[in-house]
TrEMBL record:
PANTHER family the record matches: CYTOCHROME B-C1 COMPLEX SUBUNIT RIESKE, MITOCHONDRIAL
Chain ranges of the Rieske domain: 115-201
Pfam families: Rieske (PF00355)
Entry keywords, A to Z: 2Fe-2S, Disulfide bond, Iron, Iron-sulfur, Membrane, Metal-binding, Transmembrane, Transmembrane helix
A single MF term (Gene Ontology): 2 iron, 2 sulfur cluster binding
GO cellular component: membrane
Repeat is among the record's keywords: no
Cofactor(s) required, per the database record: [2Fe-2S] cluster
InterPro entries per the UniProt record, alphabetical: Rieske_2Fe-2S, Rieske_2Fe-2S_sf, Rieske_Fe-S_prot, Rieske_Fe-S_prot_C, TAT_signal
Name this polypeptide is given: Rieske domain-containing protein
Length: 229
């Protein structure tokens, strides 16, 4: 009997099959069970299909999700104490990891001694996504945590005041400028803005054009302390 067969009354069953009313009642229950199973299967299929479509949309349009790939508020400006490059300490001053944005927020003290001056400095800051805070003259950068060599997450090392990749040793200073190792360029940067007191990192806009610095583009001096192995 097809699972689509409509239920019949005990009397109809008796006429058709010569069975008793009790047998007909049992047959009716079997049909109801099959109908229940069929509806359950359809419900499971519907939920799976909806989840698949939602997943596909997330990967196609990540910036609609509010997660990585969109603009993310990573905290209040007052939570990120500024520091001179030589005094950076992870999560205490100068450098802060924000995993939701896969970024390090860098906050440089207004007195930071840049190696470049005047218009050259201004142009370099703009091209490297360095934001000058209009309130106090400090500088902000959102560095992508991913090593530009082969993609490992690069930790910040307090002991040598720089980023050192554990995979193949690429080494970057506190502003993400390349120092040494196999990386083809400096760390990538996200666009970031200060909105009132909010620090917002736009993880959908990545600047991956910050080259190996030379004497004409280097922003800050290399750290004086060597990283231990
Ligand atoms: S992945 Fe970082 S140095 Fe290779």
């Amino acid at each position: 009997m097809s699972i689509d067969t409509p239920p019949i009354s005990p009397q109809q069953y008796e006429v058709l099959h010569g069975g008793g009313a009790e047998a007909a009642e049992l047959a009716k229950q079997r049909i109801s069970r099959r109908r229940f199973l069929r509806r359950s299967m359809l419900a499971v299929w519907g939920v799976s299909a909806t989840a698949s479509v939602a997943g596909a949309l997330y990967y196609m349009f990540p910036n609609l999700s509010g997660g990585f790939g969109s603009a993310i508020t990573v905290g209040k400006a007052s939570e990120f104490k500024a520091s001179k490059p030589a005094d950076f300490k992870l999560e205490i001053q100068g450098v802060y990891h924000r995993p939701t944005a896969r970024a390090y927020v860098i906050h440089l003290d207004p007195s930071t001694a840049f190696l470049l001056k005047g218009d050259v400095l201004k142009e370099q800051l703009t091209s490297e996504n360095v934001v000058k805070d209009p309130k106090d003259g400090s500088y902000w950068i959102a560095l992508y945590q991913k090593c530009v060599h082969l993609g490992c997450t690069v930790p910040f090392r307090d002991n040598c005041v720089s980023f050192k990749c554990p995979c193949h040793g690429s080494h970057y200073n506190v502003t993400g400028e390349f120092l040494d190792g196999p990386a083809p360029r400096s760390l990538d940067r996200f666009q970031m803005v200060l909105q009132g007191d909010d620090v917002v990192v736009n993880t959908g806009t990545i600047n991956s054009t910050v080259a190996h610095p030379d004497a004409t583009t280097k922003l800050i001096a290399a750290p004086t302390v060597e990283c231990s192995a």
